[in-house]
Structure formats: structure tokens, C-alpha cells
């Protein structure tokens, strides 16, 4: 996974980010990148990043770090993860999750969360393989998962 890296959003990668396409059926499980970028712009605790493989934008991840948030699930976690259809199953998603965990550790967090909508084409299996465990809490009709920010030895994507 060493050929992946995260970069800040810039005018140079914005076009590639907003045209990322998911696999058919996945669009109902994650917001379009353009919506996420707009939300990051108005939310000062958001941490949006482009995911690159070499010089190619292959995905987008947005985390949130807000230790004072009244909702525990929103204090530290992944808000969005979009991997382009042609790059799914190649390790970009696992890389992004581990990079969010690394950033969270650097900021002093021991746990991080993610939320997902259950469904056939949804990301639940992926997040479970990343070490997230459902908390039993449902927020905004989404399952809340939690895991340690410690590095994980992750299986290859499927």
C-alpha cells in the first residue's frame, strides 16, 4: 500500500475529485464528493483529503476531529470515504482508514468511528474488515461503528 498517499484538496485536484464515480448501486450509500467538499468548507473540524495512487486521484476521504462535540460518534472518525470504481479492491480504502487512524493518534484520540447505511451494496463488510465493531447505536438511520486508532494488519481488499 506504499504507492498510495493523501494530499490536501487544491484547485489542481478538485476536478478529478468531483468526477469520481462509484460502482453502480453504491451512490445511495455515500454522498457525492462535491457535497462532502461543500460540507468541509463550512465545517472547520473536517479533514478532507484526496487519495492518490502515483499521480492519479483514486478516492476521497473526509474525517472529523472535534473532541468537544456533544455527540461522541462525531468527535473523531471517518465521515466519508469514496473510492473510484476502477480502483476498488486495490487497497486504497484500507490505506485511507489507516491514515485517518494515524492522524487521530497524532491528535491524541484512542478511538475513531464511522457510520454506514446497511444494504447490499453498502460498505459494512469493508468497515468490519477494517476492525470497526458496531456499537449498537443508530444515528440518522446509520449504524455507528468504532475501533481503536492503533494500526491494524489488514487483509487484502475484496
Which features does this protein show?
4 helices, 25% helix, Aminopeptidase, alpha+beta, 158 residues
Reading side by side through the largest sheet, how are the strands ordered?
1-2-3-4-5-7-6
Counting helices, strands and paired strands, the structural category is alpha+beta
Counted beta strands: 7
CATH topology: Aminopeptidase
Oligomer: single chain
Report the CATH C-level class: Alpha Beta
Low-pLDDT segments: none
Order of helices and strands: EHHEEEHEHEE
Largest sheet: 7 strands, mixed
CATH superfamily annotation: Gcn5-related N-acetyltransferase (GNAT)
What is the CA-CA span between the terminal residues?
A: 15 Å
Give helix % range: 10-25%
Q: Quick check: average pLDDT?
A: 93
> What's the CATH architecture?
3-Layer(aba) Sandwich
Strand content: 25-35%
| Tally of helical segments | 4
State the shape. globular
Q: Short summary of the structure?
A:
By secondary structure, this protein is of the alpha+beta class.
Describe this structure in words.
There is one protein chain. The protein is of the alpha+beta class and 158 residues long. It has a single domain (4-148), classed as Gcn5-related N-acetyltransferase (GNAT) (Aminopeptidase, 3-Layer(aba) Sandwich), CATH 3.40.630.30. 25% of the residues lie in helices and 32% in strands. The chain is built from 4 helices and 7 strands. It has helices at residues 11-18, 33-42, 92-106, 124-129, and strands at 4-7, 46-53, 56-65, 76-83, 111-116, 133-139, 142-148. A 7-stranded mixed β-sheet has the order 1-2-3-4-5-7-6, sandwiched between helices. β4 (76-83), α3 and β5 (111-116) form a beta-alpha-beta unit.
